[in-house]
Write a structure and sequence with these properties.
Structural class: alpha/beta
CATH topology of the largest domain: Rossmann fold
Radius of gyration: 24 Å
Strand order of the largest sheet: 16-20-17-19-18-23
Number of helices: 19
Largest sheet: 6 strands, mixed, barrel
Helix content: 25-40%
Strand content: 15-25%
Distance between the termini: 44 Å
Length: about 525
Amino acid sequence: MTNSIGEIEFSNVILATGTNTTENHPVIGSKVKRAVRRHGAKLIVIDPREIDLTKYADIWLRQKPGTDVAVINGLMNVIISEGLHAEKYIGERTEGFEAVKETVEKYTPEYVEEISGIPAEDLKTAARMYGSAESASILYAMGITQHTTGTDNVKSCANLAMLCGNVGIEGGGVNPLRGQNNVQGACDMGALPNVFPAYQQVTGDEARAKFEKAWGVSLSGTPGITVTEVPDAIINGKVKALYVMGENPMLSDPDLSHLEKALKKLDILVVQDIFLNETGELADVVLPSACFAEKDGTFSNTERRVQLIRKAVDAPGDAKPDWQIISELATKMDYAMDYSSTREIMDEVNELAPSYAGITYERIEKEGIPWPCPSADHPGTKYLHKDKFARGLGLFHAIEYIAPAELPDDEYPLILSTGRVLYHFHTGTMTRRAKGPSERYPESLVEINPADAEKYGIEDGKSIKVATRRGSVEAKASVTGRSPEGTIFANFHFREAAVNLLTNPAMDPIGKIPEYKVCAVKIEAA
């Protein structure tokens, strides 16, 4: 997030797109509701489904799945044509605006209505609301990123924010809501194929030399492959061994049949987790690890805040903290990782990661600090890009709308979109072992619009078969207007109805994120 969670409550306008905030990020969802109820904020929701936030929205733009770029271009078209854009800010702090202005000229509200289904007048209303705000915050999540045009979608959100001068101000910003509790910290620490900790590029000679000196090894300057490219790399013989830690790709990755074929071809599969999950069942070696309450360390949350966690209870059996397992394994493989504690690891982080330099255990004993925090006397950064962008000038990108990779046809006439529900988390490795969530939401449900249910002979509460070009699953139907006509929605928490047997592995060419949110399906009563 460019801005902090607390600022959301005091934004004048909140634009939530591709985020079912109240179910996937309930704490932040409460901030949005408080902003509307207590502080008079205006709320714009852009989502194909009738999510809970639509009840609080001043306007709900119900677009066809996968048309986000067209919608945002349409908002910018209205803002520019009506002179609501921040001309002084654009002139002083950004570059590339003229190309965007030229591109969005054709995305009139009427043209966008043809693409997205959003009424032209509603688009105008939302554009005026956002464009007139003193401060406006954009919230987005995986409904924006999980498309073959996910990078374009994110750049479009940035375009809209810069267009109205909403980057680098309190209560504004472009704010992606992270899907898991420490995914921000994992990325910060270099768990990506192209960077060292603190996003220092592996291709940079200076950065590479720094880490080679610190770690006493020779490091490659060639970026690796992304997690979504691994299955094909295994099939093609380029990857022989895989180490999976705190992840369950056998439920969370797309096109699971292809993934299973790949995992079974490996010379060795190692899984490190707190419970035996679906991926662990295929593993040659399982390493039991400690959960969050059984170890010390830090979590970095979605607002970049680094927070201290402390061991509360002992881990069961032979389970150990992740850092200790990795250190012992590395040492057995003739690279001595002889850390004595997480504090010692954090000391190294302070030395090698500039944005974490001032975030010490002593300073976060009582309250976390958001990075960048370059020195011990720095308070941390509440919001990014104040007065100046990190790159100098904010860069606009002219983006054209591109349709999803797989659209409905005569054989597969409906769209499937996937996501989460309030009572379960990710692949259910933890929540499906808990009594309460399982009582509240005991089985997989597939949302289907009443018009489609009548058309295909589907009854509420009865089993249906959902099929794509990649596979089929059976689950219980939930006939509801929450999903629009022509679209069904399913969650991926249940192995009994593993919806990712169906999803399309087609990826964004830059971000390498699969298109979980749009694929063509057919349904029938089971």
